[in-house]
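Submission sheet (multi-component)
Chains listed below:
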Amino acid sequence: MKNLFKLFSIIILIITSHSYSFAAEKVEYLKTDWSFKGLFGKFDRASLQRGYQVYTEVCASCHSMKYLSYRNLAEPGGPEFSEAQAKAIAASFEVTDGPNSDGEMFTRPGKLSDKFVMPYDNVKAAQAANGGAYPPDMSVLVKARGGGVDYIYSLLQGYEEAPSNVSLDDGVYYNKYMYGNKIRMAAPLSDGLVEYGDGTNATVEQMSKDVTTFLMWSAEPHLESRHQMGFKAIVYLIILTVLVYFSMKRIWSRVESEV
Amino acid sequence: MSDHDYRPKSKVGQWFNDRLPLLTLANHLTDYPTPKNLNYWWTFGGILTFCLITQIVTGLTLAMHYIAHADMAFESVEHIMRDVNYGWLIRYIHANGASMFFLAVYIHIFRSLFYGSYKSPREIIWILGIIIYLLMMAAAFMGYVLPWGQMSFWGATVITNLFSAIPLVGEGIVTWLWGGYSVDNPTLTRFFTLHYLIPFLILGLVVLHIWALHVPGNNNPVGIDIKKPSKDTVPFHPYIVIKDGFALLMFMIVFAFFVFYAPNILGHADNYIEANPMVTPAHIVPEWYLLPFYAILRSVPDKLLGVVAMLSAILILAVLPWLDTSKIRSAVFRPLYKQFYWILVADVLILGYVGAMPAEGLYLLIARVATAYYFLHFLVILPVLGFKEKTLPVPLSITEPVLGGSPNLAGARNKESKIE
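Outcome: structure written.
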């Protein structure tokens, strides 16, 4: 029994410390209190809605989010815009559809079922418009970076004057948290860049937090139900384990051997 | 196996059983005499069966939604994660299930190493186990390729390229494996096919593994042959069933923690970037369970010899029953072997650690020393130990596990004869 506990704790320690060692080689990231961490972690709805605003007003001019649909914005566990709001958001984008019965492509206002409209037609077009660098799709971005949300949050605030010993080419910027410190994206945020509808002060820090929260949701749209189900599942398993443990004791009491 | 005189009570049961003795099989399985001193290390066999079934069931469900095409695989995985009902749950169980499967199989293998379960008369069980383990690695590797992320693509490229080390035909073999001149759509579709096939091969081998086990019966922590059935054994049902069930539930709690609260911690972030043949990731690392072998591969400067070393590291296990010359099974009665056993465990953990690190400087040096020691353990230490080691006195039965001098021995003998 004791051995089994020891074993499990050692194994978990080894496995988790192992994975952390990949990320640990870099600088300390900025920390903030994420509402979606922990056993009962949930998204902050207002932050998600503000984050969507930052994404759509700032990031979306270069970064696509091709795995998201407008309907997702109204789904439970997300920013939870009302259906009317989500419809209005979708309708504000022009979507190419077709071919129609004449064999021609046409544009129409977006619908809830449409995927987020992409800023460029293809990767080449995106590269051509951005000095050869491809602005990555942001749908699963936080899961695709070693430091996750902390990394993205820090990166957005990590722009600095380059130290004198670092020379930067044209269109390359210095960022404390970027791998190799050189980034092709100019500092995207500045204080007051967007005007939040709920009156929140749009500091760089606030916008970074909001948009990162939004990106966490876009990468893990079912995070809330995962946490809820996980808690129930584990409580259920623990109760069942205890019951089975006592049944086992009872059954094994018929033989003198220990369990 | 003395239970073949079983007869069902009902007429219908007898009629059926005379034609297909399924009820005899069920009776054999429930009555199967099991040593009563099995500890919790023995519960991992049942846990592994659970893992296999879980992987097959979740895998079948995923296959209903997954699209094995280089242009669509990544997107179809995102479709599963977002739009398929509970798709995220099924995929996270499957992805973390692979890690849990390997965690359990490593405990199962090291239990066998500690208690000498691979020794006569259980060599065939052991070799079947090694084949299952090899197939598991193949299945896991190909499964990791299917999401078609960066680590999928580059992992596949690195591993398949190993075959190019074979003299003369190497390049041809690699082209044949790829179905082209690089890892591409034909590679993905064949990996999907094989990934679907292998679990069923494993299932068949598991049946043989258990069948072979039921001939001599379980080894036990004391490592001695026992009379079956006797005072030393309990029927499989309910004693072992409930104990295995309890251990399985404990295991499921750990499993659930990963699935619900850290589903991506065991994976690599780069695999959420869609495969791009034009961009090589900074570090290409396999999944954690393959890292020790990856370390062995990289510790040899020559490519061909590296591949040979890596394969030997696994295949050497198949001849282990003949490399270990000691007649005593359990490490409990082998004071020296016990120490070398724990050094081997540490050695494999170190290999796993350096396998995740860049192969340079101190890491490379450690990897080389650890690789050399790994082979030293099996090729030199084990054979020599069997002759040199002074083992402790072994009890005659489980009910008499402590054995001092000859009076006890006589006592144990008396008991034995009474049982008969």
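Remark: Chain A is about 40% helix and 5% strand.
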